[in-house]
């Protein structure tokens, strides 16, 4: 039985003070919801403060990125060793990193490898653009992204995949539940080919892309979808709490 997960990616939003206030607003409510892994991913500057706030609760902490070297002359970068003491999860290969910062399959692969090596659990993001989707290339694109991101990596314990169609991120245009379920089912088949069926069945695969409290149920009701990577709605305490509550209720009865 795969434990569902709802992860909130705050992106480049919130000062430390704002992050603290947001966590305080939803800490008790989130802690009371069972049967779901609840992960919040604030900016780097707030990780230490948020870690203190959620100590002793069931809420887990994630970072939004890392660099693939452990230390050295890489001004402005954050090492996996720096994160390993602070959090449990790390988002890798988000489409914004690929689009704005030139991260290709080789870079993403190095990041996944080093995260697993220091016992961080990567949330690996993959997904196609609007043009690729329109051209019917979704399966080809996610297959290539999976293969390049996981090339040479034999140990994937703790790895989570987030399917995020680029055309749905921050646009308000989410995929349909059926579309997302079919693509995630295809991704699971690919994991079985790359590793084996047991690993594929155990691996959690999330949907991301304009997830809100209003449309959560259509994704979470799908059998292949194990949760969501939530963007804008994770910055609103009532929205994020509703998404997590709905997930717990639906998956507990499925």
In terms of topology, how is this protein built?
Elements: E1 5-9, H1 16-31, E2 37-41, H2 47-54, E3 59-63, H3 80-84, E4 89-92, H4 95-101, H5 105-117, E5 121-126, H6 130-134, H7 138-150, E6 160-163, H8 177-194, H9 197-202, E7 204-208, H10 216-220, E8 227-230, H11 237-252
Parallel strand pairs: 1-2, 1-8, 2-3, 3-4, 4-5, 5-6, 6-7, 7-8
Helix pairs in contact: 1-2, 1-11, 5-7, 7-8
Structural overview:
With 254 residues, the protein is α/β, with parallel strands linked by helices. It has a single domain, classed as TIM Barrel. Helices cover 44% and strands 15% of the residues. The protein has eleven helices and eight strands. The protein has helices at residues 16-31, 47-54, 80-84, 95-101, 105-117, 130-134, 138-150, 177-194, 197-202, 216-220, 237-252, and strands at 5-9, 37-41, 59-63, 89-92, 121-126, 160-163, 204-208, 227-230. Strands 1-2-3-4-5-6-7-8 form an eight-stranded parallel beta barrel, surrounded by six helices.
